[in-house]
Structures are given as C-alpha cells and as structure tokens.
Target: Cation-transporting ATPase I
Amino acid sequence: MVPALSPALRIPTVMAEIQPRVRDLLESRLGRAQADTLIGVSNAVVHALTRGEAPLALDALQRMLQLAEIRGRQTVWQSREPELVTDGAGLPERSHPSTPRPTPLPHGPVETCIDRTSLASLSGAGGLPAWTRDPEQAAKALLATVPKAAAIGREAFAARLGDVLARDGVLPMDGTALRLLDRVSAVLIDSRALCAGRPRLMSVTTVGDLGEAEAWSAAQSVLDRRTLRELSDEGPWTRGAWRLERPHDIPAAIPASPLALTADLHGEDGRRQARVRIGCELDPLADAVVAAARTGARRLVLTGHASTDEIAPWADELLPLGASLPDTVRRLQIGGHGVLLISGEDDEALGAADLGVAVTARGESRVCWSADLICGPGLLHAWRVLRALEDARSVSSRSARLSMAGSALGALIAAAGTRPAVAGLATSPVYSAAFLAVLGGISAARRVERRPRPRPVSAATGMPWGRGRP
Model:
C-alpha cells in the first residue's frame, strides 16, 4: 500500500476552490469550464494521495448534485429547442455583446465569511511555525480552519435548484447565475412582461348624451373577442351600431404600448359619445410576481406602463415612460445593488443585469437569448425564481455560520497539540459543517420545489391592486 502523503498537499487545491480571487485568476487564464475541471481533478487526486476520506466523500456528493443539474439543462434544452428555435425566426443574427459591470458585485454572506475566515486562518497558520517550530502543524492548522461550508452550502442549493427549475421548464443559458441569488438586493421588472395577450378596457370618459355605464357597455361590446393584433392596425372597429376609431388629436399607439390605445366611441348617428383607453389585461400571476419581488428584494423598480397603473403603488420606484432599462440596471448596480431583471424584450438590459430572467410570451417567436434564464410562457417560472431569493440568502447565511463555527472548533482542536489522535480530528469540524451545509442547501431547494403554486387572479374577478401596499 502506498503510504499517505502529507495533508499539506491539499492546501493549493483547497484554496483554489474556495478563494474567489484565486478561482477568478484561474478562470481568466483557462476559462470557466477548464478551471472547474482542473480543480475537480486536482482535488480528487490530492485527497486520494493524502487519505482524505471526508473530503473525497464531500466532493463526490457535490459532483453528483452538479451532474444532476447538467443533465437537467440538457433535457430541458432538448424539450424546448423546437419551441424556442422553430424555423430560426427566434434566433438573433448575432449574439448580443455582454456589458461589463460598472462596479464590483457587492459581497454576500458567503464572500464575507470567506474573506474573514481566510484572513484569520492564514494569520494563525503563519504565526504557528514560530511557536511550534513545526511547518507541518501549521499546514494542518490552516486546513482545520478552511471556510469550506460557506461556499459548498450555496453551491448545493444552486445545483439542486437548477435541476428543479430545469425540470419545470426553465432554460438556463448561464447556470452559474443561480449562484448569485443570495446577492440580489434589487428587482427590476419590465412592466410589459406583466401583461397578458388580451385587450382590456381601462377607462371611459363620456362626452355626449350617453351615460358612463352605457358607454362602457358599448365600448366593451366592440372589443369583445378582438385580439391585440386586430387593435394594433389603423381601425376603425365596429360592432353593431357602435364604432371605435382613432382620434386625430392624440399620437397613435397600440394597446400593448406603455401609452395604451386611445379611441373615440361613435354611435349609429356618427356622433362621438365617449373617449376610451384600451390596454392589456394583466397576467393572472402578475400580483404573485410583484409580491414575491417585494418579499425577496430590498428594492422593487417597475417601468411605467398604462396597463399596470394599478400595481404602481407597490413599487419603491416607478420609472417614467421611455426610461432606458440598461441605464437603470447600471444605475442600480452603481448604487450597490445586485440586480435581477425580468423582461421579455430588452436584450441589452438582460445582458447587463446580474441575473437576467427572460419571459417568453404565448404565441410569440421572440426570445431574449442574452438572458441567464429563459422562462415562460407565462410568469410561473419567474415567480419561482423570485421566491427562491429569500431561500438563497437564508442558505448562505446559515452556511456561513456553520463555516465559522467549524473553523473555530477546528482551530481549537489544532491548537490542542500534535498527538496523532488530535491531529486526525482537527479537520473533522470543517467537513462536518460542510456536510450539514450541503444537506441544508438541498433541503431548502426542495422547499422551493414543493412550494404551492400561487393562485391565479382572473381578469373577471379583478384584484384590489390600489388598496394598499403588501
């Protein structure tokens, strides 16, 4: 049997795995996939040579979760490719260029824990040789205080969640974006994504002899069973004795536009009886998405849109009509936020966001390929991602606490002496904490999976949007 080598050999691979700066350096030189492969193979070889049973078991568990996530990505792509690509109409002529972040992404619980614990462990391990005159003991002390649990807990949650979302139909264009969920503090929603594909009569202002209720009924009868596509042409639109036509004194618009469609209602005698505004119905899950965004983030920003005026009071910030989404993303990032954007049309903004969630529309071929996650049709997938924000932060915070506790206990054991029994126990708290963090991450992802779907709100019953904030 080959004798076990010194555990000090693990230090380079362990530091490369958990230290973001070292990992970023490797990824910049080798590429992300190649760096992952190098670290994974190096870990397996080094832990095998140094008889690290616990590290090997932990690494095997992590790789199993990642393999399930990768298989889920492959499966969802195979199932959704015909729908998203069709005859190629949904594919862009060229890929949208990525936009560099204006400022570094703020640290989350995991990054803060790793920075603090790594500094303490390096300082302690650096001073230990002067005290014990034993470099081997210093190496063991460093391994005994490695903040392993912090990163691996988040990784387990993200891998399991990625598999859950893929089986639900979410197509991940960049699966690593799920590792940023715990650092999202602002949600920006393109209000067009909250609209359904059906017209809605929003207001009626009478100008003739007709009463408001009669005018509303007449206008509704003209709109009945008409589509947004029909109402996007020049008109007029007639049903029985009533006619809706575009006025000459207002800029032309369509129901799906932020301005909505303004039309005049004329009777059989040709006289103008009312002026109406026609927008889009809200998606049945629009209220659930907005509520999830408010729960999961510190700041909710909505774009201005006539069809979503009822939910504007729920937002911390309402953008004026025509505001640039990419500029808003960068402004929030400069302000210290990790930004999640939900949109179905703005490729540039989705590429600039820290986590871009594209929502496809039913019956539409357009797909925003610059997004990190492609969801839909409908808002159910986006709601599930938003509901995972709070879980992601809880997992990261709990994993960071476990990591610090494991490192502290490992340091105490390592400082107790150099006896073989003690030396063998020194790294046990670190890996015990890591296993607990993995189990916690898996459990949290399962809770996301089992969470009941939100109750849709039909246009017929309505919703008291403007009666207060959640």
Observations:
- Residues 52-196+283-470 form a domain with the Rossmann fold fold (CATH 3.40.50.1000).
- The chain is about 50% helix and 15% strand.
